[in-house]
Amino acid sequence: MKICPRCGEENSDRSLFCEHCGYEFANEETLPKRNQGANLQEPNPSPNYTVSQKKSSLPKWPFIIAGVAVLAVIAGVGFAMAGRSNNEANLPATTVSSSKVDTSKYDEIIAEAKELTINGEYKKSNLKLSRISASDLGKSEFSAIADEVDDLTDKNEEGLKQEEDKEATQKAQEKDRPAVTTSGNTSGFSGDYAKWANTYYFYYSQTSQRQTALTIGANGSVTQKNVNGTQYFGKATITNASGDVLSYETNEQYPSDMPDTKLINPNVQITVKWDGGGTQIYYGYVSYSSRLALTDGVAKNAGVNEVWIS
């Protein structure tokens, strides 16, 4: 091993320069070796040599390049993170909300259909509801809309059925009209007729009958209300009447079972012309319970088609 005369460190026998301080070995044979004997002494390093001189002789450029590379990597990562944050911040607000389904687009149609149903315009209501997409109604998001459509459709079908029943009843009335004699001129509801301007309630309901109240105003206006909330409007005239007309026994307030029928002698005939078309005739009399009663005198299922009491 070669001993460097400057730093005293060991070097390979073939080294031309000190591997530690860079000292040039001018004459390899004259350099002392540690393994040549105990009488050989290691030369003292130059008195002017210091540790700082040893360190300063080491090349620095590899460390500088490595440091620059590390800084470049850190800067690149920082720019990438900043760019990603900016992109996320600049995303349009609709990116999140675009997947939501607008279930309010049918609110106006539902509202209009409800109003038509309340006014008894069932066919128009069904036509309005047909504008709602059937494919949307099959989606879970539109379940509430589908329920409202089903409810309105059921009410419309029931209303149309009542109109059919009413029309059939009117035709039956024309055919089975009792022999009643009327006298006097057609008059308004004043004088002796004033008491017949009243509110009457349906006495006994058979299958498919949904009438609830019948109001006759002093000016002859007529409003019939039904269980489902629909109403019919018309105009009434009144005359004296006599003869035999079919009605119910009206001793009970509101019977749960069909009451017995009987023939009565009416005091007046009230003729109603409905705004929607058709004519209805009622015969008014005072019952044994002193209540005013109206009957159409038409037999139905072993009973009477319509009987109203005040």
From TrEMBL:
The chain crosses the membrane at residues 61-82. Residues 151-184 are annotated as: Disordered. Residues 4-24 form the Zinc-ribbon domain. Keywords: Membrane, Transmembrane, Transmembrane helix. InterPro entries: Zinc_ribbon_dom (IPR026870). Residues 152-178 have a biased composition (Basic and acidic residues). It holds the Pfam family Zn_Ribbon_1. It comes from the Bacteria. This is Zinc-ribbon domain-containing protein. It comes from Enterococcus malodoratus ATCC 43197.
